[in-house]
Amino acid sequence: MEALTVLRSITFYFYDSLAGFPDGVETYGLVAGLWMSMFALGNCVGPSAAGVLVDAFDFKVGTLFVMALQLIVVRFKNPAKRIHVL
């Protein structure tokens, strides 16, 4: 069931990352390869970084750090289309 919600965001960001590049098989292959490489890197680094955060701080502070990082990324992702989170 979770895959249905994740699929919508993945599809949106995949097509968003194609903007400005020529429409062709090479571009789709390059973007798909980079996307999957970064996804796999995140699957490896994410749990390790979370373990370090929980060991260095407690769970609550580690969670607040991750949440603040996500808000910063959303805030500065595209300055032309600012998303007002708060």
Write up what this structure looks like.
- The protein is elongated, with a radius of gyration of 16 Å.
- It has one domain.
- α2 runs antiparallel to α3.
- The chain is mainly α.
- Helices cover 77% and strands 0% of the residues.
- It starts with a helix and ends in a 10-residue tail after the last helix.
Task: Provide the fold topology.
Blueprint (H helix, E strand, L loop, with lengths): L1 H16 L7 H32 L2 H18 L10
Helix pairs in contact: 2-3
N-to-C CA distance: 29 Å
What's the pLDDT, averaged over the residues?
A: 78
Count of separate structural domains: 1
Summarize the helix and strand pattern as letters: HHH
| Helix share, percent | over 70%
- Main sheet makeup: none
Multimerization status: single chain
Number of helices: 3
Q: How would the global form be characterised?
A: elongated
Task: Provide the gyration radius in Å.
Answer: 16 Å
Summarize the structure.
The chain has 86 residues and is mainly α. The chain has helices spanning 2-17, 25-56, 59-76.
Sum up the structure in keywords.
0% strand; mainly alpha; 3 helices
